[in-house]
Fold:
Amino acid sequence: MSRINEVIARVKETYGKTEPEFVQAVTEVLESIKPIENKHPEFIRANIYERMVEPDRVIIFKVTWEDDQGNLRVNKGYRVEFNGAIGPYKGGLRFRRSVNLGIIKFLGFEQIFKNALTGLPMGGGKGGSDFDPHKKTNNEVMRFCYAFMSELYRHIGPYTDVPAGDIGVGAREIGYLYGAYKKLRNEHTGAITGKAYEYGGSLIRLEATGYGLLYFTEEMLSHRGESVEGKVAAVSGSGNVALYAIEKANELGAKVVFASDSSGTIYDEEGIAGEKFKFLKDLKEVKRGRIKEYAEKFNVPYFEGKSVWDVIADEGIKVDIALPSATQNEIHKRHAEALVKLGVIAVAEGANMPSTPEAIEIYRDAGILYGPAKAANAGGVAVSGLEMSQDAMLLQWTREEVDERLRKIMKHIYREAVEAAEAYGYPGDLMVGANIAGFLKVAKAMVALGLF
Ligand code: NDP
Ligand code: 2IT
Structure:
């Protein structure tokens, strides 16, 4: 049996029942890098495949905090420092009820290769908690963040491990987390990214994942003689990634007709633009309301309990571009079949692992453009890397400068994926290309570092 197959089998056997998302992520990456196995005997000699799926360090801790009624509450905190071969561990924190070790491990594993693809020196990590910020007051969120950081601070640092946001961790949470970090350490180092400009953050970080997703989509389309302009797009979610994907899609001349939250989906045939987009942004970023209020305000259809992809499949609504930007495994086989049948041109992933393996198989069989998450959504962590650089120099670049660098990085990622796919016999396959390009960089570093 090949070494890669052995490692996949071992991971399935060990974690198949307890950490299905981690097994899914490992299987996808390792299956798609098989073309490198025979060409790199040094990876087999150094046992790289087995070493790559084992986190460097897993930290699990108790977070005790006080709610507004004076009750002491307890949650689990996690930080998985997955692979530090090419730089400080880097990756977001997710606060959501469903968070468990397997989810943090899948996200940390993906982050290794995504970060490598950016061309910046960042290792892979991820963390979070099963704390759910929905329906909590600001003060409760603040006390939780301070409690969470009272343990995490001893594990992180600007050259050690640099967390940022993810689902449930936005500008507000980053502010409280960084406030706690500064208080505990009595130093101002950029040990967290996604900070606001006023206290040392980078301009464009807030927008970076969504903007980068559209830069990547434009890059994919332009190589088929197409562009985003004039296309009808579906975005799922209405959080950080989704909002700025919608904003940039509008700017590039597309019409975005879908958005969602975990309660349901809205369909606005006219497009979520202008005053309507402003309303959505305010609803989600400031009022922290539900997407249903958009449907009520603008009198458009709302589908309670359905995802964007359910609505597309059930109602037969055609879109040209699909930008899943909510969560993992949101697009299933039947959704992918419907998208393809209705004539979708491109799927670019804003969320991490939003497509099930069966859905990906359908995109690839149909020959549509498919931008996998670790390439398409890398703009967020890329600008986090730029934030780290600015923090280290104690200066802040202009919006134009950061945006220009982001564009260049997204182009670079596209080119790396295309070239790796070509070099290993899978021309045009961005999933194979992104996995191979990311993996090669980290694997070569691990070989060079010896026992690290
Ligand atoms: P946010 O918390 O800002 O927004 C998440 C959005 O997705 C919300 O609208 C939320 O709805 C919805 N959502 C979350 N979970 C589910 C679910 N299980 N079912 C249906 N809808 C759901 O998170 P982000 O926008 O930051 O993250 C979205 C995705 O993008 C995640 O996969 C994340 O890992 C990925 N990502 C984020 C980056 C970043 O920089 N923030 C960078 C790269 C990737 P509700 O409000 O109802 O919970
Ligand atoms: O999934 C991701 O890349 C993120 N949530 C952003 C990570 C970061 O460190 O900016």
